[in-house]
Request: fold
Amino acid sequence: MNLESRRAVFAEVHKAIDEAAQSVIDCLSSDVNLELTYPPGIEISPQELEYLAGIDIAPEAKKILKKIIADACGYPVFHMMSLLDGVTEPYVIEIPEWFGGALAGDPDKGIMLHDEFFEAYWDYNNRKSD
Reply:
């Protein structure tokens, strides 16, 4: 992937982080039908939705929360890039000599990174229980 393509991908990631943070703020501000996708299989009960609808947050607090949420969203992306750069090592699935790597899907072989992302959740979930 060339520099321009990487910049385009990273710019889209930053856009998605900003959109995710704003989406959380919007959920706290209105009666929204939440459809969560992460972690896989998560559901929000009617009681939880009722509790969420009762939260009243001042406009200034929403601005601060958006910053905190965006920071939290950015951490996994930065961590993934650190893993790929080889400056940190995997924990969930230990690899004795980690040198970093690159991710590349191959639609011709049925390898789709966005699908693997959700499938790999269970590796983490199983290790988390240890």
